[in-house]
Amino acid sequence: MKVFNQKETEFIMINIPEILVANGTGAILVLFLLLYRIRIAQTNQFDEKAYNFLLIVTFIATINETLSFIIDARPGFIFYILQYISNTICTDASVIVGYCWCLFVEYHIYRNTNRIKKKSRILAIPLIITTILLIINLFGNGIIFSISEKNKYMRGLFSYAVYVAVFFYYIESIWTVKTAKNDSILVEFFPIYYFVVPCMIGTIIQGLFFGIAVGWLCVAIAFILIYIEFQISNSFIDDLSGLYNRKYMNHYLNKLQNAKNKHVYGFLLDLNDFKVINDTYGHLSGDRAIIHIGKILQNTIGNGCVAIRMGGDEFVIFANFKTNEEALALKKRIEQNVRQFNIHSKEPFHLSFSIGIAKYNGKNIDAFLSAMDDSMYEAKNMHRLMQ
Asked: pTM (2 decimals)?
């Protein structure tokens, strides 16, 4: 994020105390938040890992940027090498943060690892391009930046490619949130602008006003704001399964009742013989069964769907489908994925669901839930008769 030319070096040297204060504050904030999160060890979900990784990258980048400012224009071959290394790390880190932020947003909304795998390949293109350019830049051609004979940093012809990549990621994350909101999946409180706006402001200021090191400080502040807001949103996530919880279901149904889209199917899933798993193999095995179910459902549902753990061994899926055939196809995919789990799993137990399906009539939520319940118990009775 540090870009300035040869003429600004004198100004940078004078501005070192302010740079140390700004980047030092950012580094302390990020490190404190990272250590705190490690200490409380919240969950093992993808978004939690991605968030921690973002903090680590930001901390490393902040330290490297500070180093690059301090050693700028200092004579010596060692400082020359350090300038190239520190600026390369710092520049690539800004793009890595944008890339990982998009994946974090994607998973936090949809909680679907298959979506992450597919989207990560497409989103990686700007990161790969900028990384390749930075590697080429190490050979001294100055396409991104160059270090003069006096060890002064100077911006290159393609330096703005980094800014384009970073802003692409921020805009893409906003689009993801907007799309999810249109699909009636997104919880209202998703704080996308709490992160994007401070980061954009910091990037613009540092790009326009050379030597003002506020980019990574703004990123650190954005992480603090996001963390505060996510303490609220995490109350809507079931810790064991990683799916949304009953509290979120109530939020979703209230939103559904006032929504224009009425093409919603509800799936009520009851795990068969869950008590037998607990009694035979212990409650830890029962917990693992819930964890596996969460992963199966996350990887089965697609666009316009949301999976919820109501509590115990009951789960709900709401899906924006227009035909019964689409609903039956999802039911079939769930059953197929459960069979695949039973074939390949090393667990001592097998999983199976009784699944009830109902279509929302656009008027009565209670009738919708009751129809799902009746359909599920009908499937449950069929399961008992087949045993």
From this structure: 0.74
